[in-house]
Design a protein that fits this description.
- It is a single chain.
- The protein has eight helices and 20 strands.
- By secondary structure, it is of the alpha/beta class.
- The chain folds into three domains: 1-47, no CATH class; 89-97 and 256-419, Rossmann fold, CATH 3.40.50; 133-236, no CATH class.
- The strands form four sheets. Strands 5-19-20-18-17-14-15-16 form an eight-stranded mixed beta sheet, sandwiched between helices. The protein has a six-stranded antiparallel beta sheet with strand order 8-7-6-9-10-11, with no helix packed on it.
- The two termini are 38 Å apart.
- The relative contact order is 0.11.
- It comes from Nocardia vermiculata.
- Keywords: Methyltransferase, S-adenosyl-L-methionine, Transferase.
């Protein structure tokens, strides 16, 4: 952030205490505008050569922290989480953002964007080559790429260092359906899956940079569209805690190659269920957390999972068929939880970016569980939910934050809450 003539400027590609030449990119009047640092006059000691050639000024919105050291990136994210918790949850606490490390050996070597391994960290660096799932746009000439930041134009440059090796193989060389999207997934066995989504219906994705146009484009991108399998089987094989899942390549799975294992390890540690205990896994997806809970609770325990995506519930039910205590339901969480009368020992929830909100946190805390494990990928939504828990008499006893999206501003937070 910077200030100029009494107004706030949100300056991308800048670091605290730097002196930069900034170009205003969006100004709708009011108290703030947006800008980009196009020339660094006095650089921060935390500045490095950007690892991403696609995301600089005027470029894509992918690696917006690629010009800062990994530690500086994590420090910035920690400051954001800390500020949001203080402002929205009225809770002051220290925050440390950790890199995701599971101790699991890597199967492939990660190299720099130019293909040269010189100067890159040791095998398995967490800062590049971490993304196993991505979505690409296709321009009017059938070329795949990424959207320009806050715009609809497609940049047909696939040199971003986020994807794991092999994720983008063969994509730049092909001509795709103009206006389509590509969903790309590399599963735990290293198999690349590519699914082409048909272009949105005419008029569903208007051009322009207005808030209304952006919202309409996002809505159109997430409506149901015809799929064409191009590569792989479309069924991604994933392993967590030595358990095998087979899930849709177009469905949700944590994009960081080690995130699902990392989060499930934390959930298992914090849940610490007794044999025969009960638990809920809300927004359960394919049941990664439900599996760990059920293993602790044993055959006499009961783990109820809820997820609105029916395909994910079907995939999870198949993967957990050897755990008789697990019962996954395809329903909206707020509707399902409103009718519950049981009091589980532990509730785990991993809501979407907007958070859980009063509709879920209210009945959830009224169920009076011993422990709640809340996971959030947006610091503001996470802090708002923490404030709701505090108001209901729960307090955070453990807090961890992970750099699950290196070189970006995104961060994942996990909190253990217990009744005071």
């Amino acid at each position: 952030m910077a200030r100029h003539e009494g107004r706030v400027l949100f300056v991308r590609h800048g670091l605290p205490d730097e002196l930069v030449l900034a170009r205003v990119t969006e100004d709708r009047g009011g108290s703030f505008c947006r800008a980009e640092a196009v020339e660094i006059l006095e650089p921060s000691p935390d500045r490095v050569e950007s690892t991403c050639p696609v995301s600089g000024p005027g470029g894509a919105g992918c690696c917006d922290f690629a010009f800062a050291t990994p530690q500086a990136q994590r420090d910035l994210k920690a400051a954001v989480v800390r500020e949001q918790l203080q402002r929205l949850a009225h809770w002051e606490t220290d925050v440390v953002v950790e890199p995701i490390r599971t101790g699991r050996p890597r199967a492939v070597e990660v190299t720099a964007p130019d293909g040269n391994a010189d100067g890159v960290e040791a095998l398995g660096t967490p800062d590049i080559g971490w993304r196993t799932r991505l979505r690409l746009a296709v321009d009017g000439e059938g070329r795949a790429g990424v959207h320009r930041y806050r715009g609809s134009e497609v940049i047909t440059d696939l040199r971003c260092p986020q994807p794991v090796p092999g994720a983008l193989d063969g994509i730049a060389e092909r001509t795709w359906t103009p206006g389509a999207d590509l969903v790309v997934a590399v599963d735990s066995e290293g198999l690349q899956h590519i699914v082409e989504l048909a272009p949105p219906t005419a008029g569903a994705a208007p051009r322009g940079r207005s808030r209304r146009a952006t919202t309409a484009r996002r809505a159109a991108a997430h409506t149901r569209r015809a799929e064409r399998l191009v590569s792989g089987s479309g069924r991604a094989v994933q392993y967590v805690a030595e358990r095998r899942w087979e899930v849709s390549a177009t469905g949700f799975w944590q994009p960081h190659r080690d995130a699902a294992q990392c989060y499930s390890d934390v959930v298992a540690e914090w849940a610490d269920l007794d044999a025969g205990a009960s638990a809920w896994d809300l927004y359960c997806g394919a049941g990664v957390f439900a599996a760990r809970l059920a293993e602790q609770a044993g055959p006499r325990g009961a783990v109820l999972g809820v997820e609105s995506a029916r395909s994910a519930v079907a995939d999870g039910t198949a993967a957990l068929r050897d755990l008789p205590g697990v019962d996954l339901h395809a329903e909206r969480v707020e509707r399902w939880i409103a009718g519950r009368e049981q009091s589980p020992s532990v509730i785990v929830l991993d809501p979407p970016r907007a958070g859980a909100g009063k509709q879920v946190v209210g009945p959830l805390t009224a169920a009076n569980p011993d422990r709640i494990i809340h996971i959030g990928c947006d610091p503001a939504a996470f802090a708002r939910d923490i404030g709701l828990y505090h108001a209901a008499g729960y307090r955070v006893t453990r807090l961890r934050a992970f750099d699950a999206f290196p070189a970006t501003h995104h961060v994942e937070c996990l909190a253990l809450l217990e009744r005071t």
